[in-house]
Amino acid sequence: MKENTGKSKYVMLGMLARMPLTGYTIKKWLENEYSHFWQESYGQIYPTLKTLVAQGLAVCSDNGEHGNGRGQIVYSITEAGRKELSDWMREKPEIEKLRYEILLKISFGENTESEVLIGHLDDFIKRNEELVKDMNRYMEQITQFKDQGIDCTYSRLTALCGVHVYSAMKDWAIEARKIISEKGEL
């Protein structure tokens, strides 16, 4: 289970500020749009939505008249929710915490063979290449929302950050691989 940072309610409010959503749609957006920079436990989605409703920051349809036609509950942000989100947006962001296990393993590299580290780096390079492709595909997909009158500028910016971060990590791994390979040839 991912660490609950207390920011789950802001993630949900931000998503609901765009449009009314079901819990399932929120889960899918978390997987697609946010996973490269923010992780939420899927076990937090419905409890958080329930809390938002209890606090008057969101409302939910009942299964009948306001639902999406499939018996799913649709959640919408309230004015109080918009104010809560706006207040949080004005707060200074917390300092980011970076955790890459591969960096730990490289930093302790003298404790294994070069081939082991090169194998880890090769996997890391492939993974980051795929992540760059995923972010580029996502940026192409969100253009469909523009046709529906939804401004995706900010979603595109977060995906663009993913492209840059994953590209930089791939470039680092290629360079690290070269350095380790050259060290092994000495």
Detail the topology: elements first, then pairings:
Blueprint: H1 8-18, E1 21-22, H2 23-34, H3 42-54, E2 58-60, E3 74-77, H4 79-90, H5 101-107, H6 114-141, H7 143-147, H8 153-185
Antiparallel strand pairs: 1-3, 2-3
Protein name: PadR family transcriptional regulator
InterPro entries: Tscrpt_reg_PadR_C, Tscrpt_reg_PadR_N, WH-like_DNA-bd_sf, WH_DNA-bd_sf
Keywords: Coiled coil
How would you describe the overall organization of this protein?
The chain has 186 residues and is mainly alpha-helical. The protein has 2 domains: 8-90, Arc Repressor Mutant, subunit A, CATH 1.10.10; 101-185. 65% of the residues lie in helices and 5% in strands. The protein contains 8 helices and 3 strands. Strands 1-3-2 form a 3-stranded antiparallel sheet. Helix 1 (8-18) packs across helix 3 (42-54), helix 1 packs across helix 4 (79-90) and helix 6 runs antiparallel to helix 8.
Properties at a glance:
WH-like_DNA-bd_sf, 3 strands, mainly alpha, coiled coil, 186 residues, Tscrpt_reg_PadR_C, WH_DNA-bd_sf
Main sheet attributes: strand count, strand direction, barrel closure:
3 strands, antiparallel
What is the radius of gyration computed over CA atoms, rounded to a whole number of angstroms? 21 Å
From the spread of the alpha carbons, the general shape counts as: elongated
Q: What's the number of structural domains? A: 2
Strand order of the largest sheet: 1-3-2
Number of helices: 8
> What is the terminal-to-terminal distance?
44 Å
The total count of strands amounts to 3
Quick check: average pLDDT?
88
Query: How helical, in percent, are the residues?
Result: 55-70%
- Computed structural class: mainly alpha
What are the segments in which pLDDT stays under 50 over at least 5 consecutive residues?
Answer: 63-68
Order of helices and strands: HEHHEEHHHHH
The percent range for strand residues is under 5%
